[in-house]
Each structure stands twice: as C-alpha cells, then as structure tokens.
Amino acid sequence: MSDKDIGEMTLEELQAEYVKISDSDDNARKIEVCTQIIKLDPKNAVAFYNRGTNYVKLGEYQKAIEDCNQAIELDPKHAKAFYSRGVAYGRLGEHQKAIEDFNQAIELDSKHAKAFNNRGISYGKLGEHQKAIEDFNQAIELDPKHAKAFYSRGVAYRKLGKET
How much is the pTM? Predict the structure, then answer.
C-alpha cells in the first residue's frame, strides 16, 4: 500500500494502488480506492464493478447491486458485472433475478464457468435440480478443477434421489 493519502493520489496512482492490493483480503481498502477512482472518473465501469465485487465479499449486497447496476449502465457488455450482481441477488435469496443475471453473463461470455455454477446453485434453490445438474456439468466441462461444481452436482443428484 502506498504511504500517500488516497485523496492526494492521481487517477493513475489509484489504479496502480488497486492493482497492487487486488490480491489482498483488505476489501475495505479496495472499496476506498475504488470510491476515489469513481470521484475522479465517474464513468469508470471497471471501478464500479470492482467496488461492487468487494461489497459482495463484505456481505453488503444492496450496495453491490447498486454498483453493478452502474457498471452495467456504463458498459452493457460487462459480463463480470452481471455475474457479480447475480451473486448478490443469490445471497439475498432472489434466485430468479440471480438466474437472469447469470444468463446475461453467460450470453456475454460463454466460457464463464462460475456463472454456470452459480446459476446451477440458484436453480437448485428453486428446486429445479435437473437444470442445476446441467449447469454444474457445463461448469465442470469449462473448468475440470472447479471443486464447488462437483460438490454442488453431487448435492443436486442427491436431491433427485440419484447416485453420482
């Protein structure tokens, strides 16, 4: 982290700071940096997306949805923003809205394994276990090391009364 106060940093310094801390668990700091980037560049869809993603990690789902809405408004082809908003909706139990966002993320990026996995989870929460299994299969095909998709597929099979 830079010793310089965030409020004194240039846009370029803030973007470099975000890259430097992007692998850290300091979501509050990442939100603070993104907020300052947005102040300097209010049409920066990536900054809204990044801040929204960090709000998801902190469990602040409504703020995450608002930021993802803004990112999508600025860049309607931002697959990751649809994905993150879907995650937030899913965590709020709004699984139909989550599915719609995961659908959009997949339409924009057909190799988005996490979107298939999370759409499968939402289908499972709605009792649509066969659709869930199809999504978990797709997630596994795209990412054969996607452990959560294997686990979730097993849960879905169990709910259908089948063995894997």
Answer: 0.93
